[in-house]
Amino acid sequence: MRSQRGKRPVRNPLLSARPQNGKSLIPLDVVPEPLVETSHRGAGDEVVIRTNGLSRAFRKGLALDSLSIDVPAGRVLALLGPNGAGKTTTVRLLNGVLEPTAGQSRVLGLDPVAEGDELRRRTGVLTEQAGLDDRLTARENLLFTARVRGMRGQPASSRVDHLIESFGMGEYAYERTQGFSTGQRKRLALARSLIHDPEVLFLDEPTSGLDPTATREVIDLIAGLATRHGRAVVLCTHFLGEAGRLADEMAVLHRGRLLAFGPPAALAARLWPGLEAELDLGGPASDTTVEALRSVDGVLAAHNAPMGARVTVTGREVLPRLVARLVAHEIPVYASTPLPKTLEDVYFEIAGRIPRDGPGLGGIELGNGTEPAP
Amino acid sequence: MSRPNWQSIRAVVARDLTAVRRSKAIMLPMTLVPVMLLVVLPAGTAFAARTQDASGVSDFLNRFPAGLTDPIVGLPQHEQLIVLVNGFLIAPLFLIVPLMVSAVLAADAFAGEKERRTLESMLHLPISDRDLFIGKTLVAFLPAVAVSWLGFVCFAVVSNTLAWPVMHRLFVPTALWAIMIFWVAPGVAALGLGVMVRVSARANTTQEANQLGAAVILPLIFLAVGQATGLLLVDVPVALAIGAVVWLVALLLIGRGIQRFTRDQLATRI
What we know:
The complex is a heterodimer.
Chain A: H1 13-16, E1 35-36, E2 47-58, E3 61-67, E4 70-72, E5 76-80, H2 87-94, E6 102-107, H3 116-122, E7 123-126, H4 138-148, H5 153-166, H6 182-193, E8 200-204, H7 212-227, E9 232-236, H8 240-246, E10 249-254, E11 257-262, H9 264-271, E12 275-280, H10 287-294, E13 299-305, E14 308-313, H11 318-328, E15 335-338, H12 343-351
Parallel strand pairs in A: 1-11, 5-9, 5-10, 7-8, 8-9
Antiparallel strand pairs in A: 2-3, 2-4, 2-6, 10-11, 12-14, 12-15, 13-14
Helix pairs in contact in A: 4-5, 4-6, 9-12
Chain B: H1 6-21, H2 24-51, H3 55-62, H4 70-73, H5 77-115, H6 119-123, H7 129-167, H8 175-202, H9 206-225, H10 228-231, H11 236-260, H12 263-268
């Protein structure tokens, strides 16, 4: 396992090398190790998903190449990457739908290949396509799943009715799903994935097609499943804003290769030394002010900005000293705002290092109007 | 090897049968073809026998090798047309019914799931590869047998009723017909779906599965089924033995299908 608990993080020469003119210094194919950060893990963390060199080849080539990750219970892992990165293949391998051509995995301590049925009894999956039979009603679709999952009679009916009501589909329960909107289908499919109260959830684009209110409800639901109920959630998404709100850990895949794995904040700390912060001084900082900022212990960089100055410091504790220095120089400070790197920043920093002549990032959608890093 | 999970299998069968009942594209051929072959055709023959001169039938029968047509030649002339058509010539057409129904449904088994984009969510369910294959096989087999038996009841009622003024007795079913209905026809259905379920697993659409089956494999089975007229001219033990051979081949095909079928193969083609 590359990401064993307590081991020092592996440093990736590619990811510590700055790209020049949009091109990587080292071709992606010769990158020996991904950027992996798992030093935050505690000894008591119960790992529910563990892969070791997991690979799957199809006729056209490798869809997944030596994936080694582990996910503790109660965490949300965001699997990120452009179309064709290997996200869906990963989910299929972890749930025993596909068999690996190399490597192993364990989910809930079970081997997905040898104990696939037992595993699938304890996992829930929301596929990218809702996968509802249009010839059946909403209720019939869910009842079918309940019966295959071993529920029968009144308990199955009650559970189905409860979920349909919970997901706001009560008035459509006895209608065939043929005319349902994308959002209605997605809600129904999500309800179906929860029918047996799964211990591990694989969610492929859970909010695509949902309206803003439903999106918020689904995000809250997923967060609640992980934090309150201790479920592990593997989230495949192109919506980085959504991933940023939910993910405790992120794994970036490209052409089946793992480029980075770990909590967004920890990966950011590896990618960008120090913490960026903005100082609101009511107007652009003068050169003298910038020099004064640079002289403070713990400041790594400082430059002026439209409303003041932007600084990079070794940690949050430096900010009060900075403010004190400015106040001592009778420079008014209206606000001091740390700007921690988000999951989006981390993703685009990593994605930006993929060679431009490779496949594009057409599948990536920006969340919250954030621009990709240059 | 673990025992089949019949609750899961029943769930698959119940879901698919509900869906099939609501699909006009499947129900229409499943209804029309048996009605044409097993109701309209024998009814027309019975009417013809009552109203037309049947002297040409004897000439027709005399062209066959001696002994082959003895069961018909020995009958009164006005009964010969009815017994020839309804008693013998419809036999191969009758076997086409289970073959066609099972092929239509089996073609839809996996290819239809792919087409409707429901396959992946099904593969993520806790149902073993074997149970899924058995479920999909039963979805094709049960309606094929049901339609065949129901069709035969209609055929027997129509034939005997309309031919009563000519025959003055019940002439179907005979012991050989019973063997064909209850032994050979289900075997033929199993044979058809033994081929088509595997074709369906490889095809991407139902149309592709139908074309593959119709163009390459089913003609061979049709050819064999076409010999079924002869089945009604042999002895009961021989008919039973022929049925056993059909069943053996069908079970071999299905058994091999179960052994080779994996969700990995299916998922690779999604």
